[in-house]
Design a protein that fits this description.
A: 5-stranded parallel sheet, 4-stranded parallel sheet, 11 helices, 37% helix, B: 418 residues, alpha/beta, 8-stranded parallel sheet
Chain lengths: 319, 418
């Protein structure tokens, strides 16, 4: 099948999903990110790779954190950054998504960072750009519906590689609301592409998508069993609106069975790392003693995230 | 007007005709086959050498958003009668609306318009519409289109009421609660793409309810647009039991699966959703062995309705002009002979709407489709008469093209001058 994120030379022109990306591209992004890590420690935290380019942050769904990290990453690449909070502007006046894109292209946009509540929205934009012959404009998916959050997936891979070096011996557990999580989908695709032999999905059946085995994950309903001898634990955020209702009876019962406590963490390997895409619900999916404990690498994830987003933007804009 | 359709391959699935012969039409009816009747003075000859001549296609589901264009599309596709679901704007829930639609159709004088009346007012699934009045105005049966009757008691009463008049009720089986948030088949593809799923149980639970109520009320039920293997098995079992139940399948569900969504192709969004390969195969078997009729489920949409993320795009595809070539494509893949394939879009739907098919026999009304079974053509917006250019087949080559269509003995469409 035609892969809309690669150009005719097989190079990354948009980043829409991790699924189907060759491992060489994943590794290229991680290696490039590593080279940017040093930039953030300089007095002048800038490289001129995107000087004169315009990066539009198109957030059709609110997210201060992700938008901020993209903004910082683009600024460290010397790009001009324009933040558009579309919720409150054009779509409210009836302008369609593609009208918005046409208008911004007319303002000479070079790169769109897109967050949208509908799965697949960044594909629609990339396909539209192809149709109107704008190969020079690139799209980076910053989270679409439940589908994908590829830069989060990549920064998670960066984090794992940083602490564990080799992917091919690892056991990685993803815990929580996988059904609604674009992060989990991107992580699972990245982990399989990079050769992780054991991926576990832990949660109650109401929060797990069907056919997870087809993605290469083993399902566990019992967290104690699922965490046994894991090297990496990726905790997922439980959205407030899902805490009491048809999916779960209460946040308390969820925490008792699927919250990461020091006791449960002890079942994993002694050097296991604990990750979380943020923002955390302390006392719901994770105990504060774990979140603030020595095995948590949640803040380094944020730091790595900027380097990874710099890498992604510089690579797609260069292709 | 005396018309001779010369030397075509005459296929009439109902009467078992399949022979090369000429057909003689006098006025609105077929006068004779093979030999002209005594004293027949031919006014016009249509040379059908190399073409198939068959009864006009009957489409069990076609929305006529802009009625002139869509009826022109119907006859361009060899369709001589269209069953119109009641989910127009406004819904077809009053006799005057049905009356107006039927008259407008007759005035346009292309394909016959056979409306389905709304079963409930506004298709809301609460209060009964005036079924007898709608019937008198020309409705062939009653339906909710894709709208549910959430209240099971309301459905029971509607079926009891319909049964008192021996009216048929057409229902699209989909459990409201299981389907309300879903946009794609709950399977591998929806999971991978992060699309919320509609489980198979949404269909089977609804069918189980509908069949039980059919059993209790004696109401004749036609289930529209089956999408699952399990649903087809339920209908087969109900027919074996002797329940008055029939069903149809949209042509796209015989050819496409969830995998055709690819990277969020909005043209692959349907209601009910495209399902798994196993479902498609079972539906194909059901159509091939005569359990189900095939329809186009013609849903013409504007370009903007599909230029949206998958879950926001409207479901459905244009179909009137593709029903014949897509049925031929399906039949070729299923290894079905042409007469059996044509039965699914002529005699089978005729039986479902309870009108004897105007076959290729002397005295029958001349509603005919003449098509070239080998002509290849490319589907593109310019060669579709329908206002709806929305199709997963855009750019594809299809085989089988209507050359001429007759309704009431009149040539209402001709691809070229004969």
């Amino acid at each position: 099948m035609h892969n809309p994120q690669l150009n005719s030379d097989g190079q990354l022109s948009h980043l829409l999903t991790i699924e189907g990306l060759p491992p060489r591209i994943l590794t290229q992004i991680l290696d490039t990110a590593a080279s940017f890590m040093e930039v953030s420690t300089r007095d002048v935290k800038k490289v001129p790779l995107l000087r004169g380019k315009s990066v539009f942050n198109l957030f059709f769904e609110n997210s201060t954190r992700t938008r901020t990290t993209f903004e910082i990453a683009a600024k460290r690449l010397s790009a001009d950054v324009i933040n558009l909070d579309i919720n409150r502007s054009s779509t409210a006046k009836g302008e369609t998504l593609l009208d918005t894109i046409d208008n911004l292209c007319a303002m000479h946009a070079n790169l769109f960072v897109v967050r949208h509540a509908a799965s697949g929205a960044p594909y629609l934009i990339a396909e539209h750009l192809r149709r109107i012959g704008r190969d020079d404009v690139h799209v980076v998916n910053a989270g679409d519906g439940r589908h994908a959050h590829p830069t989060q997936g990549l920064l998670d891979m960066y984090t794992i590689r940083h602490y564990k070096k080799d992917f091919t011996q690892l056991c990685v557990a993803v815990v929580g609301d996988i059904l609604h999580s674009r992060v989990a989908r991107s992580d699972i695709h990245a982990l399989t592409s990079l050769g992780v032999p054991e991926i576990r999905a832990i949660g109650p059946e109401t929060l797990l998508p069907k056919h997870l085995d087809k993605l290469g994950a083993h399902v566990f309903h019992d967290m104690n069993e699922g965490l046994k001898d894991c090297d990496v634990i990726i905790m997922l955020r439980l959205q407030n609106e899902r805490m009491n209702g048809a999916l779960l009876p209460s946040a308390g019962e969820y925490f008792r069975h699927f919250g990461l406590t020091p006791q449960k963490l002890a079942l994993a390997k002694p050097d296991a790392i604990v990750m979380h895409p943020g923002p955390m619900n302390r006392g719901v999916e994770i105990h504060s003693a774990v979140a603030d404990g020595p095995q948590a690498v949640i803040l380094p994830q944020v730091t790595f995230g900027i380097a990874v987003r710099m890498a992604v933007m510089s690579i797609v804009a260069g292709n | 007007m005396n018309l001779e359709i010369r030397n075509g391959r005459l296929i009439d699935p109902q009467h078992g005709t399949d022979s090369r012969a000429s057909l003689f039409i006098s006025g609105d009816r077929i006068a004779a086959l093979d030999q002209a009747p005594a004293g027949f003075a031919t006014d016009r000859v249509i040379d059908a050498s190399g073409y198939v001549v068959c009864p006009g296609l009957i489409d069990l589901g076609a929305r006529l958003n802009s009625i002139e264009a869509e009826l022109a599309a119907a006859v361009a596709g060899g369709v001589t009668a269209v069953v119109v679901p009641p989910d127009a704007d406004p819904p077809l829930d009053e006799p005057e609306l049905a009356d107006r639609l039927v008259h407008r159709g007759a005035e346009i004088g292309k394909a016959r318009v056979l409306p389905l009346g709304a079963l409930t007012l506004g298709l809301k699934g609460e209060r009964l519409a005036e079924l007898a009045g709608l019937k008198k105005a020309g409705c062939v049966a009653f339906s909710q289109a894709t709208q549910p009757v959430v209240d099971t008691e309301a459905l029971l009463r509607a079926m009891e009421y319909a049964a008192s008049f021996d009216f048929a009720v057409w229902l699209q089986p989909q459990d409201y609660w299981l389907a309300r948030n879903g946009i794609a088949h709950e399977g591998e593809v929806a999971n991978r793409l992060g699309l919320s799923g509609i489980p198979v149980a949404a269909e089977t639970i609804a069918i189980a309810t509908m069949l039980q109520l059919a059993r209790d009320t004696g109401c004749r039920v036609h289930l529209t647009r089956l999408s699952t293997a399990a649903g087809a098995a339920q209908v087969a079992a109900a027919q074996a039991e002797g329940l008055p139940v029939s069903c149809d399948i949209g042509i796209h569900h015989l050819l496409l699966t969830e995998n055709d969504i690819g990277f969020f192709n909005p043209h692959a969004r349907f209601a009910p959703p495209l399902r798994s390969q196993r479902d498609r195969q079972a539906l194909s078997d059901a159509a091939a062995n005569g359990l189900a009729a095939i329809c186009s489920d013609h849903t013409p949409l504007g370009a903007d309705d599909k230029l949206l993320p998958f879950g926001e795009a409207k479901p459905g595809a244009t179909g009137l002009e593709l029903l014949l070539p897509l049925t031929l494509k399906w039949a070729a893949a299923a290894g079905l002979a042409l007469p059996q394939a044509l039965a699914r879009i002529t005699s089978a739907p005729a039986a479902i709407i309870g009108r004897p098919l105007a076959g290729l026999v002397p005295g029958a009304v001349a509603d005919l489709c003449i098509f070239d079974p080998t002509a290849e053509w490319q589907v593109n917006p310019d060669n579709l008469k329908s206002r709806g250019k929305n199709s997963p087949w855009l750019g594809h080559m299809l085989t089988g093209k209507t050359q001429a269509t007759l309704v009431n003995g009149r040539v209402v469409f001709a691809d070229r001058d004969f």
